[in-house]
Amino acid sequence: MSDALEKAEQAAREAATDTAAVQIALAALELAKAAQQQPAPQHHQCDHQHKPRRSAGEWIGIACAVCVGGAGIAFASLALAILGGTAAIVVLVLRSMWTDVQKRR
Question: What is the b/e burial string over 57-96, where b = at least 16 CB atoms within 10 angstroms of the residue's CB?
């Protein structure tokens, strides 16, 4: 009879162990369900409106405008350099003529 008692005791221990494992598994499932039901944390929303990003066509247009503007500035600088050189020559010629007029008097 003690053999039967020991077997019953062993069966009771296994049942208790299995029950604890099942309870842990059920608790894990409940936790997973609760995590799925909770909404994801929302990021901070800005109050201002964001401008849409520029498209590739707009960037190409900007690059062309910069190139044309740069060429215009280059030609304007060249024109000013020629004008300055011409003005310097005119001033030197007039100065030379003035000194010649002053020598004749």
Answer: eeeeeeeeeeeeeeeeeeeeeeeeeeeeeeeeeeeeeeee
Domain containing residue 18: 1-33
Residue 47 lies in a domain: no
Does some domain include residue 54? no
Per-residue pLDDT of the chain (105 residues; tens, 9 = 90+): 567 666 666 666 676 666 776 677 667 667 776 766 766 667 777 778 878 888 999 999 999 999 999 999 999 999 999 999 999 999 999 999 999 999 987
Q: What is the token pair recorded at 66?
A: 């910069």
Answering whether pTM is above 0.90, one says no
d(CA 60, CA 46): 30
Domains held by the chain: number: 2
